[in-house]
Every structure is written in C-alpha cells, then in structure tokens.
Design goal:
The complex is a heterodimer of chains A (about 110) and B (about 110).
Chain A: E1 4-7, E2 10-13, E3 19-25, E4 31-37, E5 44-49, E6 56-57, E7 64-67, E8 73-78, E9 87-94, E10 103-104, E11 108-112
Chain B: E1 4-7, E2 10-14, E3 19-25, E4 31-37, E5 43-49, E6 52-56, E7 59-64, E8 69-74, E9 83-90, E10 104-109
Parallel strand pairs in B: 2-10
Antiparallel strand pairs in B: 1-3, 3-8, 4-5, 4-9, 6-7, 7-8, 9-10
The chains are: A mainly beta (about 110), B mainly beta (about 110).
Chain lengths: ~110, ~110
C-alpha cells in the first residue's frame, strides 16, 4: 500500500497563477483533509471531506477550492495564488474521522512569489 | 484563542534520558492523538487515546480527561527520536475534527 500520496512535492508560483494539488489514498478511507502548516503555528484545516462527493470548509478556506469526485482522491485548488498562500500543505485521511488514526502525505512545499 | 498548549516548546536531551512532553487542552474531546513530524517533514501518527495509557516500544502516552491533560513519555531516548511531537485533541464532532498544538521540538544528542 502506498498510503497517502501527494503531488507535487514542490512548486513555485507567481502571484495570480493557479494550480491543483492532488491527494490520493489507497486505504479506502472515508475522511480526507487538507491542512496548511506555517512556522510557529499548528496545522490548520483548509477543507475536508467526509465521503465521496462531499466537501466542507475548515478553519482557513478562503482562496482555496476542493473536490472529491472519487473516494480515493481529494484535490485542492488555488485559483489565483497569493504570497500569503506560501506554506507547506499536507493531505491526510482517516477511516472514521476523530476516532481513527490520521495518515498523512509527505507534504507539498508551495512558494508564491 | 489557543485550544492546545504544549510544553516545552523546545527540548534538548542527552541520549538515554527520560523525556516528557506535556499537552493541555481546553476543549471537550472524544480522543487525543500524538503525532511525530520527522526532520524531513513527514508526519506519522503515534498514538490515539481516549483514556488511561498506551505504550508502544519506548513511547508511552497518558491522558487525564478530567484535567484535560496528556503526556508523551520517551524512555531511553535516542538520537533517532529527534523530531517535532504534536498533540491533537479531537472534539469528535463533524466540524473541525482536530485541534493541533504547535509542537515540541525534541533534539536528542548522542
């Protein structure tokens, strides 16, 4: 099993450009999450999904969109990147939310210039 | 507001020392997770607990629900334990599934 796979690992964007981060999991997990990690701050939830076809906003959703068309994939989109979105992004999944362990991808380091 | 407080923020220990990392939280929870973030950035789940104590190898996690406090202990620390340890209590509702501490950075010196 590959677990949780994130692509790409690194990306540099110019302000205003768009991109999509892909998260794929092969563990048949219902719950998937997108977090951002910034220096001195804990992981912050951007969006999450509790099942195929569902998405919901987290703590810091502005500037991001997500889609979960297939159970195994959770996409995070930036339509018009801003320097404030420079961060490390982590995807995670779990079987039944809070009562099962979180499995993380290796992260995507995004720089917006 | 900060629902999760970890202490210490940074910790340096000699190889072999017994280490304790503390986590206090203000929200009602149904479970609490301890995560380890390696120097390369990857995050792995160490423990999930809702009461009492769990042990895995040299790592022990305890939780006191009434006092809203959890501890992570590392016995006979080793340089490979050097990492950031993150406490993540979960209220168990369907909204924000987890709150995350800012982490404790541990360095174990040979």
């Amino acid at each position: 099993n590959a677990g949780v796979t994130q692509t790409p690992k690194f990306r540099v964007l110019k302000t205003g450009q768009s991109m999509t981060l892909l998260c794929a999991q092969d563990m048949n997990h219902e719950y998937m999450y997108w977090y951002r990690q910034d220096p001195g701050m804990g992981l912050r939830l951007i969006h999450y999904s509790v099942g195929e076809g569902t998405t919901a906003k987290g703590e810091v959703p502005d500037g991001y969109n997500v889609s979960r068309l297939k159970k195994q994939n959770f996409l995070l989109g930036l339509e018009s990147a801003a320097p404030s979105q420079t961060s490390v992004y982590f995807c995670a999944s779990s079987y039944v939310g809070h009562s099962s362990p979180l499995h993380f991808g290796n992260g995507t380091r995004l720089t917006v210039t | 507001k900060n629902e999760v407080e970890q202490s210490p923020q940074n910790l340096t220990a000699q190889e072999g020392e017994f280490i304790t990392i503390n986590c206090s939280y203000s929200v009602g929870i149904s479970a609490l997770h301890w995560l380890q973030q390696h120097p390369g950035g990857g995050i792995v789940s160490l423990f999930m607990l809702s009461s009492g104590k769990k042990k895995h190898g040299r790592l022990i996690a305890t939780i006191n629900i009434q006092e809203k406090h959890s501890s992570l202990h590392i016995t006979a620390s080793h340089p490979r334990d050097s990492a950031v340890y993150i406490c993540a209590p979960s209220p168990g509702d369907t909204g924000n599934q987890f709150y995350f501490g800012t982490g404790t950075s541990l360095t174990v010196i040979p």
